[in-house]
Design goal:
The protein is an alpha/beta fold. It is built from 17 helices and seven strands. The chain is elongated.
């Protein structure tokens, strides 16, 4: 047997498209059209389908290689020709059938979220985009195969064939990863960092610097208005006014205090944390009834839908402090600056908590932590339970926690078996509780203790419910009963489901109240249950909800 027909001599890839590869690729293409957590437009669907087809093709090619490597029987040429015809017909019928249903599946997801149905789903766009993505992936695969063959041939001169195959494969992987991570990805991160840094420095004319001496960013402030960055200026420039709060809450109200330290406030993390603390002391933040330590998302953004409800509930007798750690969106910040985000959150917590514990217990504010998305995970890592056990702060509200968040993951995995993964019950509910758009923090089997952690999460949030394990097993949250905002048509498929959820994380969009877009009314319910403010009955809460929703709508116009 010559080296060309002997698969043990060298791992070869055919120079043409593999029939089995195309069969698996078509199957994965079709399955990728099924719904996931969030609605998708035809362009994103095309990318997902192209990647799914590439993954299926790779699996098919690998199975063919494995079959030949094990010297299993190979069909004669006539049988292989018939197989190609049958496979071609099957793939065509399969793809056409799934494309026909793709629009209905996407509308089933949109219906769950109260969105208008799509009048048409452009299957031609999906097919063209998918084909381009598949061909790019195929070319990359061919280049990898060529590099592997080149390296293994060179190594055959000095080592046995099987050794040259293994070493050549490892070297090819290493070289590809070095090019991707060391050149392409690094260039992308540098470009993204530069563009977002310029965007962060943009000063919007509708947000002028404060003129009051006691306001952060004002003439007497320790933190300069220009140094705060775009998101910091937005956070400080959109504080609800005292008169606005009083008109809704009734009775006397105070002007809420907000403090924000941008990346340019100081060179070192500890210096920025010290400046934030000094500014918080200067403006009287520790003299308020409540203090919230906010960990922003990657860009430094603090969701106004999260902060305004608690400021109204406390009738303005509240202060909040935040510190920026990145210009980049959360996914890029997590990849490139994950440790830095945690260090930033720890530095601010240690500064604020250290000062807070030095105050007399009956004269200090109630201290809560808040974080959304990556901010929730970094906030979770900002403290150690052993360091606070003798003098714990009051609690935390974490919304949309990423699937890697330690406390969320631990509590979810240890939930009561009669509770679903999308709304767990942890032990007796005295410390940790979970809520969604239908509430949940005010329902506990035991009384809530003095230290409270609340998680606000939607079953349709891919940031929370993505899992690498979905590559090979069905996630628990897909089993019955399902979350109220998850389509009944969603099914688990190996490999494909993980690609769909990854696309939902990166490019999925949903209206407020679904996915990763948390609604102001749900924050209101969560904060009300968590801090239990006095003087709010159902009528006044309903009035506040309407007011907050109007404020939210006016900002999105």
């Amino acid at each position: 047997m010559n080296s060309h027909s002997d698969p043990s001599k060298r791992w070869r890839f055919q120079g043409y498209f593999s029939t089995i590869g195309l069969l698996f690729g078509s199957l994965f293409f079709a399955l990728s059209l099924t719904p996931s957590l969030l609605p998708r437009d035809d362009l994103i669907q095309g990318v997902i389908s192209g990647l799914g087809m590439a993954a299926g093709y790779l699996i098919g090619v690998f199975l063919v290689w494995l079959w030949r490597y094990l010297y299993l029987p190979v069909a004669p040429p006539r049988a292989r020709f018939v197989l190609k015809i049958v496979a071609g017909v099957f793939c065509t019928l399969l793809v056409v059938s799934f494309l026909w249903q793709a629009g209905r599946w996407q509308n089933s997801v949109r219906a769950q979220m109260g969105m208008e149905e799509l009048a048409a789903f452009r299957v031609v766009v999906i097919g063209l985009v998918a084909m381009v993505v598949f061909l790019v992936a195929w070319v990359v695969g061919k280049l990898f195969a060529m590099l592997f063959r080149f390296l293994s041939r060179k190594l055959e001169r000095v080592v046995p064939v099987h050794v040259s195959n293994v070493v050549g494969l490892l070297l090819a992987f290493w070289l590809f990863w070095a090019v991707f991570d060391g050149v392409l990805f690094s260039f992308f991160l540098r470009s993204a960092d530069l563009s977002h840094q310029q965007l962060d420095a943009l000063i919007e004319p509708e947000l002028p610097a404060p003129t009051e001496p006691m306001a952060t960013g004002g003439p007497d402030s320790l933190l300069d208005w220009e140094s705060m960055g775009r998101q910091g200026r937005r956070f400080l420039g959109q504080i609800p006014g005292r008169a606005d709060i009083a008109s809704v809450a009734g009775g006397a109200a105070r002007q809420p205090i907000r403090v924000y330290a941008g990346l340019n406030a100081a060179e070192e993390t500890e210096e920025r944390a010290a400046l934030a603390l000094e500014e918080l002391i200067r403006v009287g933040g520790f003299e308020r009834e409540m203090l919230v330590l906010v960990t922003p998302t990657g860009t430094g953004w603090v969701d106004p839908a999260a902060m305004e409800p608690v400021e109204f509930l406390m009738r303005g007798d509240i202060a909040s402090v935040a510190m920026q750690y990145s210009y980049l969106p959360s996914p890029l910040a997590l990849v490139s600056e994950g440790a830095y985000g945690v260090e930033n959150a720890q530095a601010l917590f240690q500064a604020v908590y250290g000062h807070w514990t030095g105050l007399p217990p009956d004269e200090r504010p109630r201290l809560f932590l808040f974080g959304l998305s990556l901010g929730a995970m970094n906030s979770d890592h900002s403290f150690d339970f052993y360091d606070i056990i003798d003098d714990p702060f009051d609690g935390a509200l974490w919304s949309g926690p990423p699937f890697r968040a330690a406390t969320w993951r631990s509590a979810t995995d240890q939930r009561h078996p009669d509770s679903p993964e999308w709304l767990p019950r942890f032990r007796d509910d005295s410390v940790i509780r979970f809520a969604n758009q239908h509430g949940g923090l005010d329902n506990g089997r035991a009384d809530w203790g003095s230290f409270r952690i609340g998680f606000l999460q939607y079953a349709s949030d891919p940031i929370t419910f993505f899992s690498p394990d979905s590559f090979f097993r069905e996630p628990d949250w897909m089993r019955e009963p399902r979350g109220p905002d998850v389509s009944d048509d969603l099914r688990w498929f190996p490999v494909v489901t993980m690609l769909q959820l990854a696309a939902d994380m990166g490019a999925g969009r949903s209206p407020r109240g679904y996915g990763h877009e948390y609604a102001v009314g749900d924050y209101l319910d969560a904060w009300h249950a968590l801090i239990e403010p006095e003087g709010w009955d159902q009528d006044s809460l309903a009035r506040l909800r309407e007011h907050l929703e109007r404020r939210q709508d006016s900002k999105s116009d």
